[in-house]
Amino acid sequence: MIFRQLFERESSTYTYLIGCEQTRQAVLIDTVKSAVDLYLQLLEELNLKLVYVLETHTHADHITGAGALRDATGACTLLGEEANSPCVSKAMHHGEIINVGQIVIEALHTPGHTDDSYSFILEDKSQYYAFTGDTLLIRGTGRTDFQNGSAADQYVSLFDHLLKLPDNTWVYPGHDYKGWMVSTIAEEKAHNPRLQVKDVAEYIALMSNLKLPNPKMMDIAVPANRACGKV
Amino acid sequence: MIFRQLFERESSTYTYLIGCEQTRQAVLIDTVKSAVDLYLQLLEELNLKLVYVLETHTHADHITGAGALRDATGACTLLGEEANSPCVSKAMHHGEIINVGQIVIEALHTPGHTDDSYSFILEDKSQYYAFTGDTLLIRGTGRTDFQNGSAADQYVSLFDHLLKLPDNTWVYPGHDYKGWMVSTIAEEKAHNPRLQVKDVAEYIALMSNLKLPNPKMMDIAVPANRACGKV
Question: Which residues contact A68 (CB under 8 A, 6 or more apart)?
């Protein structure tokens, strides 16, 4: 497997490039429109053909590069069916399997941050990778106070799905604001302050007391991303 | 081997944490003073004991966390002997071997960006890792126009040393400004525009025509780093 984590500084977004060494097919997870030329450069230099562009959810903090990448490469764009996006190539559902050459990616519906939040899981050489979007962050979890977010749903997504992955699973989040790039399920179980709650009621109370300001780009980014980044 | 790449946004610096799974000893390469508390948190959470803090060179763009980390942990700090730093625990020389539990790191003197530039090489499970500081960047090389820099020396460091590492060696640089995190020797040989020169004269001409502004923090950072970050 060819694997690269990429960083977009303005929104502190991580984008993931995953490629199949044998077939040279590749997928990008959570792209940013301003970095599309850099993705195209890297794909060309690594001799990879982009076949899928996946979104973990409808982002409120940056504009997706999905539409521009589809235009440039013919790749298929996927976003959760809950987003009701009119322009996405394919509306993704829970349990959807995405084949990228010999790499098998499973989409898990992990709502809570938004109702259209998904995580992507794959296995390579007995090592699991979880691309958790804004559901599970490194020592944090995504806010649940807009875009049909729900702390109760997120509790289920975290405790009944993501934290049941093997302890050594790599956790690759959608963002990090302190410069950390990867974690593991074991690390998050032990050290993520949001995951030390005793039950769903305590988690709902914790999340409802965060009182965060709205993301700066929300009013622009959400409608733009429903339109595949075409603004 | 436990391995984490960390990012400091202000100076776009990559810091590397490498730990031995068996002995729990760890080393940090190129720390940033403002992130020291985050390093200490991560070391504690991963149950690692910091034994070395390595510098690839005397940085001109950020202040090292070496002194503060030595105070907090008792770790030994290393910087190239060419720096003539009065406060470093140990002045490092070409070929120096640094043992971190069962991990063996070799320091290569790779001058050019500065006269005290080093790269750190290690092997884990038949995979080489090169921490190249500002000598070899992803699709670039470090400027050579101050701190006793020399394009001629850098040409030798690149072509006679770093590019002779196995093609699949991971290249982990000291910085990246476009959000890329890792490369390989093969990739840099093929796609780094600075490495497409035919000889040392062409490289010197290329580097002397860059006409870059001085780093913003240079006047503060260089003396501070000669003093192990104690300002």
Answer: A33, A36, A229
